[in-house]
Amino acid sequence: MSMVKFTVEDRDGSKQELEAPTDMGLSLMETLKAFEYNIMATCGGMALCATCHVKFSRGQEQLPDKNDAEWDMLDTLPDADESSRLACQLRVDENLEGAEFKICGDLE
Hints:
Number of helices: 2
CATH superfamily: Beta-grasp domain
Number of strands: 5
Structural class: alpha+beta
Helix content: 10-25%
CATH architecture: Roll
Largest sheet: 5 strands, mixed
Strand order of the largest sheet: 2-1-5-3-4
């Protein structure tokens, strides 16, 4: 089983390195929920709610480009910037190896 390691910073500033399988086809949002991070994922991964908003501090250049739906949703967030992504639109694969990001999405 192929694994990838990345570092997650929760809303309270605590950091944890996670190791997740790359062969299950999971989104980053699904993986974070499996590790019991508090992510609403109201829309179920359709890029419609932005409750899985994350900001990358390392490894963003390795990620695939944002799709139109992701761009449109990020445009609605006042705190979104160049490092912002929707975790539901990212697959857990080798592109996440060594990445660091902070969970930003709302808890409402």
